[in-house]
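Consider the record:
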Amino acid sequence: MIVQQQVSLPEDWLVPKALGRSNVRIGRIGLGLREIGADPVRTRAMLSRAVDLGITYFDTAPSYGLGISETRFGDALPDLGRDNLVISTKVGVDLRRSTRSGKVLHVVSETIFGGPEGRRLFADRVNRVLRPRPSPPADPNAPPSATSGLDVSALCDYSYDGVMRSLDKSLARLRTDRVDILYIHDPVVHYGQAIRGPYRALQQLRREGTVGAIGVGMNQTRLLRHFANDGEFDVFLLAGRYSLMDQSAATELFPLAVERGISIVLAGVFNGGLLANPVATAEFDYGPTPPDKLAHALRLKAVCDRHAVSLKAAALAFSFGHPAVHNLLLGATSAAELDENIALLQAPIPPELWSDLRSEGLLLEGVPQPA
């Protein structure tokens, strides 16, 4: 149920702190624009509400809505006050048009817009620009994706020149002359290319001041460890790998990130929606929910129910509570949903909840208990 009352953010959550060794500073809460919604009026209201709350960090990408997320945010930017905001976008996805067919062939279909009308809009766009692709994803360890069954074999461009082209187009859609943070976007099977091409490009852009901080955004920890060891990054955007469902980042990534001075921005703390509503039809990490994951979520919910705490509130508090987490990106499609998430994030949670989760093997050893 959507919380209707107005909420506020604690002052200490709004205090900006530097990302890694950069001069870019953000508070503890940001707004992710992957699910930007199909209704531009509702989107404007949500962005205005975020700024009124004191949120200054906004994350988008060319692939979110096939460019719509950046465009909608760029349209609103003059009214939001660009100089007071920190903006991140991503590179690695090529939205170029084919010179032979005139059709958009290089797209990502990972974005699921909010609400039924958004899903219809997105499905229509995908059906018009994508070709069938029967083969499975190239990486068997990659999480399920909405791209399954679609022709995305040529959607990526992890070259040096491709990064520069992608950023130029993003700046045009965003209607700004700079972004503050630039991420290499999800190079699951492109590590070698990413560390050669995009990383060099990001280093140059950082030296020139076109971007203030550079990073990598992924929903896995293994390759982020390689990036941490092989490059000098300011920030990692990690989706779905430090949550009540998946706590792997606590041991596999966070200690190395702290050692290397890399800040962590966290997203996807509901693992695609399962921790928001643990039912068989819920999505898990961009795909259908496997039965074992549903059973895991229901075990978590049962413990939360015993303590009269919503599973969503516990999921938010858990992810936000790790000392390595610099910023939590909230996802929302309306001002009311944003208020709901912020209210849940501040809901009181008894320490006994975390103790019970640990005793039932749902909170792993070595994972800190949120304060």
